[in-house]
Amino acid sequence: DGDPTGAWYETFERIGLGQWFRVLTGVMQVGGGLLMCVPRTMVYGAALLTCTMLGAVFVDVFVIRMPFFIVPFFLAVVIVTIAMLCRDDRYTVIPGFLVRIIDRLRASRS
Fold this sequence. Notes:
The chain has 110 residues and is mostly helical. Helices cover 73% and strands 0% of the residues.
């Protein structure tokens, strides 16, 4: 929506990078979501989405100085958790010690 009275339009104007950044952010989020739907690319999609969420935390805290940083931070934690618990071991790029921790978490859930 390119409506100049819309909330997202105004938010990205406050960031100061222009509306192209709003479009780029949306493309990155949709792309990351699609990558997370495929087991082979799930880690890459999670990394892309986590980067956008951590970028939102940074912008909330340091640029627009709003107290809403907890929402994108929480979403980043959820994205990483989902990616770690749903990953396919054949395609993993996760260090061994994290794999063992996650396997223990999986075992404790059973």
